[in-house]
Amino acid sequence: MNNYIDLTDIEDLQELIKEALQLKKENSAANLGKGKTLGMLFFNPSLRTRLSTEKAAKLLGMDVMVMNAANDGWALEFEDGAVMNSDKAEHIKEAAAVLSQYCDIIAVRAFPGLKDRDKDEMELVMNSFKKYASVPVINLESATGHPLQGLTDALTITELKSSKKPKVVLTWAPHPKALPQSVPNSFVEFMQKLDVDLVITNPEGYDLNQDITKDTPVIHDQESALKNADFVYVKNWSSYKTYGTILSTDVSWTFGAKKLELTRNAKVMHCLPVRRNVVIDDAVLDSENSIVIHQANNRTFAAQAVLKRLLSPSA
Ligand code: CP
């Protein structure tokens, strides 16, 4: 593995999941990162990604540097050939080259603007770091994907499934803010690689990018989609078609106890942070069906498996 930008950087997902679960049992690579430094740049807020990736790096013996790039760094220019006579003080070419001297791996979080779909889909920030850094780059959530979350979700379902081919339902839920499609995109991509019966349910107007959903069934009737689900992944996202907008705040899509009754006593997942009683009701989050804390714990082992691969790319 040379970078971890998206699912295509993983050669064998099953092997990587196995490795992450092994690392969870026993930290068998505690010295691999000794003398190496992970540099993390956050252009957006984070709790889990920041701390679980830092913890993962330290479990491998790495040093970690973290920067709130949006507030503390120079405003970066990403356009080639830009005349930098406005608000951007430093070009990505210099920034990435300098960081590559300080760090052995660079990790970046940069959310989409949600105004211009074509621009967001170019993944300018992530691809520029990949282009100009001379060390591996990890995606800590970009405009269109959150592959560390996707890997975590895949290993959580692999770890906790009790049937050979569980039914997994990704359901949209309301939210007061316009959120990216990054998490559901990655979830769908990773689930398509597992032996699961994947169904997506969302209101009309919220279908995800068809290049990602491909032939995964998309059902606009949530109750019928939830029937006999073994895992329910609840998540909000803004419209992809009417890009970046909120088309519905319909509370009938909130995931509550009545919805849970439609399932096969499903395990309920969410990437967190979750807005209680808007996205998922207290009654579900506080029940034994909720595995959101277990899921968040697995972020460390997913990150550890990826860092381990990047520290020993031939493995
Ligand atoms: N799920 C997730 O990425 O959480 P944070 O935004 O807190 O990092």
From TrEMBL:
Its EC number is 2.1.3.11. It comes from the Bacteria. Keywords: Amino-acid biosynthesis, Arginine biosynthesis, Transferase. Residues 9-159 form the Aspartate/ornithine carbamoyltransferase carbamoyl-P binding domain. It catalyses: N(2)-succinyl-L-ornithine + carbamoyl phosphate = N(2)-succinyl-L-citrulline + phosphate + H(+). N(2)-succinyl-L-ornithine binds at residues 141, 175, 235, 275. Carbamoyl phosphate binds at residues 46-49, 74, 109, 146-149, 271-272, 299. GO terms for molecular function: amino acid binding; ornithine carbamoyltransferase activity. Gene3D superfamilies: Aspartate/ornithine carbamoyltransferase (3.40.50.1370). Residues 182-308 form the Aspartate/ornithine carbamoyltransferase Asp/Orn-binding domain. GO terms for biological process: citrulline biosynthetic process; L-arginine biosynthetic process via ornithine. It is an enzyme of class 2 (transferase). Pathway: Amino-acid biosynthesis; L-arginine biosynthesis. InterPro entries: ArgF'-like (IPR043696), Asp/Orn_carbamoyltranf_P-bd (IPR006132), Asp/Orn_carbamoylTrfase (IPR006130), Asp/Orn_carbamoylTrfase_sf (IPR036901), Asp_carbamoyltransf_Asp/Orn-bd (IPR006131). Catalyzes the transfer of the carbamoyl group from carbamoyl phosphate to the delta-amino group of N(2)-succinyl-L-ornithine to produce N(2)-succinyl-L-citrulline. Is essential for arginine biosynthesis. PANTHER family: ORNITHINE CARBAMOYLTRANSFERASE, MITOCHONDRIAL (PTHR45753), ORNITHINE TRANSCARBAMYLASE, MITOCHONDRIAL (PTHR45753:SF3). HAMAP family: SOTCase. Homotrimer. This is N-succinylornithine carbamoyltransferase.
